[in-house]
Amino acid sequence: MTTPDIAADGSNAVVAVAANVRNESDRARRFRVRTSLHPKAGGDALAATLSETVALSPYSATEINQRLTLAFPALWTPEQPNLYLAVSAVEEILDREEGRSATKPDAASADPAAMAAERSDASEDADERRDRSFEPGDAESHEGVRLADRYETVFGVRSIAFAAERGFLLNGKPYPIRGTSNHQDFAGVGVALPDALIAYKLKLLKEMGCNAYRSAHHPPTPELLALCDELGLLVMNENRKLDSTPRGLDHLRRMILRDRNHPCIILWSLENEEVLEGTATGSRILKRMAGEARRLDPARPTSAAMNHGWHEGDYADQVDVVGYNYGHRGSAADGRRRFPRRAQIGSESASYTTTRGEYADDPASGYASAYGTSIPSWGCSPAVSWQAVLDDPSLTGVFLWTGFDYRGEPTPYEWPCINSHFGIMDTCGFPKDVYYEVQAMWTPEPLVHVMPHWNWAGREGEEIEIWTYGNCDSVELWLNGRLLGEQAREGLSPIKWAVPYERGTLRAIGKNGGVRAASAERATAGAASRIVLEADRTRLGGDGTDVAVLRVSVVDAEGRIVPTADSLIRFELSGPASVLGVGNGNPSSHEPDKADRRRAFNGRCLALIQPSELHGESSATIRVKAISSGLVPAELILTAAAAAGARS
Fold first, then answer.
1. Judging by beta carbons within 10 Å of its beta carbon (0-12, 13-18, 19+), is residue 90 exposed, middle or buried?
2. Could you tell me the end-to-end alpha-carbon distance of the chain, in angstroms, rounded to an integer?
3. What whole-number distance in Å separates Cα of residue 466 and Cα of residue 456?
4. What residues contact 647, with CB distance under 8 A and at least 6 apart?
């Protein structure tokens, strides 16, 4: 499904539907396709059309093309992800004998389950999501016509374009891409994420100001794409590798056919950092892949996430949008400017290696300072990366590496460090300090953040380097009620201070036009006193697949997070639920993720609670208790409820 023509005044949009119909029987069949467009939430048809009758010989297929017009469509954008539902019904035209028998269907033919069983599930590469839940009326035939199949396709109305001079255009307007690259994994579960955890991660990215997601380096799950449609995130959908063998092309074909109706997808990335980039052999392979991608989906451009070879041979010319992995700034940017007609994107950038809550490089422990003193040679801060986009809008945007820490690649360290430090958030989704640099760049609300924490016992009188991230015009810094000074913000970089340490409260006040607009503080925390539990949701589904994310904090008697706390937290449950997994964001922790306990790392840890499938009961209460020696425990109540109409 595509929306090839959207009126400039918003009065209408053309929706083009290409339905592939297969006859898998041993006799010729005649059929027609009826398609209607509805609001995704349901309701009467907004537009409908009926194809001519087509004859299809045994074991053959054909494509039915239809065009419908939506009046005053609500466009899809990350800020307003409006969605529609297309319903396509294949109606078989029966001969007279079949028509007479169909007017009085027997029990088997009137049974929706029997009808579904009769159909071959050969639509592995189908464009649309097949709907197997027929209503009873769907199974009925009227004189001469029988419903043979039905598809439901969620879609959005939007236009996309990459222009060499203007960058990315969404619905005809320049739209800078504020993206992150992401692996699939998460603390406690590895790569086997329940849908609720996928949604949790995407919502965290949205809160940070992200409007785009790059699936690195593999096709994402259909569930992730559906959530990007619903929540509003542009997607750079990435193929696994550079490969024009029959197997490689089959993988590419299946990805595109499976995913091409998602409005969130704006780019097909055909490869990532392959050694053949810039070579004649690589160019031949990429040309074959790009041609196949355009044949299957001419509505979206192709790309390649390249880390070299941009200017050698004609490799980069084989794709529509050239991806620059760390090549959008510095000397590589000078080379990029030799191709003024080339559409481009910062497909991967930054690689800012830090560890949450750590303020000195510690190779023995596998920790990287939040001051960014151990970033790799190819890396930079997110601010430097984003400044390149502000300086040259034709770059279209960037995908920062990465939204979250992930297992493996423990740069700059090795074993026993076991996960990366590249994330803007850790493996649990807890923000690092650099998160606030990104949020300040990518969101309009006034913001100021101060680092580091203010617990430096034994270093009284010693100067501590203070950074404030923010987007206000200037920042005042106060210590225990004394004004230490005010500095104007210059560009996107943090404001830096040197402050002799003394116990108390360090407060930053952001000002716009001389008026206070935002504030943040760091207060010296006392000894760990109690546990605080916070759930992302307290009402959950009862089908056995939902998950609640419990964020755990160790606080002092005044409720301040103890920034160095490493208390061992144990989780006790009552009610039909289990601890799906635990985590703490420590890149060197070898504690098991499948357990009922986890040590806090710099004051925080996390537990994933999964209700069991409910049988018979409509709801159940789950009590979660967090316990640690010497700390006041915390308790939280969750409710699991069966979906309306669910059977035991």
1. buried
2. 38
3. 13
4. none
What distance in Å separates the CA atoms of residue 214 and residue 233, rounded to the nearest whole number? 10
Q: Residue 325 and residue 398: Cα distance in Å, rounded?
A: 9
Q: What is the 3-state secondary structure (H, E, C) of 32-81?
A: EEEEEEEECCCCCCCEEEECCCEEECCCEEEEEEEEEEEECCCCECCCCE
- Which pLDDT value is given to residue 96? 66
Which three-class secondary structure state does DSSP give residue 182?
Answer: strand
- Give the three-state DSSP class for 311: coil
pLDDT in tens, 455-513: 999 999 999 999 999 999 999 999 999 999 999 999 999 999 999 999 999 999 999 99
The structure's pTM equals 0.91
Computed from CA positions of residues 269, 274, 279, 282, in that sequence, does the dihedral angle turn out positive or negative? negative
> Model confidence over 227-264: pLDDT tens digits?
999 999 999 999 999 999 999 999 999 999 999 999 99
Q: Are 363 and 345 in contact (CB under 8 A)?
A: no
Pairing mode, strands 495-500 and 463-470: antiparallel
**466/593 Cα distance (integer angstroms):** 34
pLDDT digits (tens, 9 = 90+) for 377-401: 999 999 999 999 999 888 899 999 9
- Residues 272, 401: Cα–Cα separation, whole Å: 13
Query: How is 116-168 classified by DSSP, letter by letter?
Result: HHHS----TT-SSEE-----GGGG--BTTEEEEEEEEEEE----EEEETTTEE
* 638: exposed, middle or buried (Cβ count in 10 Å: 0-12, 13-18, 19+): buried
Buried-exposed string 61-73: b where 16+ CB fall within 10 A, e elsewhere: eeebebebbbeeb
Question: Which residues make Cβ contacts (< 8 Å) with residue 624, sequence separation at least 6?
Answer: 533, 550, 571, 572, 573, 577, 607, 609, 635, 636, 637, 638
The neighbour count for residue 104, using CB atoms within 10 Å, is: 9
